[in-house]
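Issue 218. Parser rejects a valid record. Input:
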Amino acid sequence: LGLCLAGMAFGSPAGMALAGMFGGGMLVLAVPIALGAMAAGAVAVLLLEGLLGQLARGLAAAANAAKARRLAGRLYGLARLFLPGAPGLCKREAFAWYEGGSFARARPLFERLYEQGETDRQMLEILEVCYREEGDWNRAADCLEKLIKEKTADRAMLERLAEACENAGRLDRALQAREA
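Output the parser choked on:
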């Protein structure tokens, strides 16, 4: 709430968005949490997820979208601390960090999601980007190998694989990828 007021006072777009989205919602959220009942807790989770979703969408339109997404990532992380069983918060936090360019913060969350069974193609592609941005070429190459096994690779994917293998010291595999 202090952040909202400070943002309003200085006229920052993010602060204004926070104030507009959280201004009326904080009291609505605080009451069910204070009640402590299971039903009230479920209502609080739904309200919090709705408010964070609105915040993320509103901040994405702000002048500095990457900074706004990182702020949303922090808020999702805070929400996960207080509501650890809330479905979808980990994934939303991971995407907020990823879209904000904070790959080192997004990667462990995406790894956790992958280990929990979200093994679709998009997850592997995102993990590959995170590993690549962090310079973990072995893991980036492993993700690309899994993607290629799933589906025929296009030229761009083979080039990314060749680059990752080359940087990881897997020169034989890099050469195979370039020749394919």
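Fixed in the parser; the record now loads. The mean pLDDT is 74.
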